[in-house]
Amino acid sequence: FFWVGGFGMDYYYSPEQVADKLQVHIRTVYRWIRDGRLKAIKLGPRMWRIPESELRRFLRAEEPPSEPTS
């Protein structure tokens, strides 16, 4: 991963790193990006980066609802 300094500093992951981290196929990550479920920044014709803050948001949104404890 790499980071960009300045206000709102964030780490950026490649789709491959996200796939490894989430233990999914790389095509799944690209599908999430294409479908708009995971926001990514396109840096070139074949280069995408996902901000860490976006990955955290995505993971919160994808969590299944927790079971009530009673």
Using brief descriptors, characterize the structure shown.
41% helix; 3 helices; alpha+beta; 70 residues
Question: Could you walk me through the main structural features you see in this protein, from its secondary elements to its overall organization?
Answer:
The structure is a single chain. With 70 residues, the protein is of the alpha+beta class. Helix content is 41%, strand content 23%. It has three helices and four strands; from the N terminus they run ββααββα. It has helices at 15-22, 26-35, 52-62; strands spanning 2-4, 10-13, 41-44, 47-51. α1 (15-22) crosses α2 (26-35). The longest helix is centred in the C-terminal third of the chain and has 11 residues, at 52-62. The radius of gyration is 14 Å and the shape is globular.
Cα(first) to Cα(last) distance is 42 Å
Overall body shape: globular
Described by strand count, sense and barrel closure, the largest sheet is: 4 strands, antiparallel
SSE pattern: EEHHEEH
Structural class: alpha+beta
Rounded mean pLDDT is 85
Across the major sheet, the strand order is 1-2-4-3
Note the beta-strand portion: 15-25%
Query: How many DSSP-defined strands?
Result: 4
Helical residue percent band: 40-55%
**Whole-number radius of gyration?**
14 Å
- So how many helices? 3
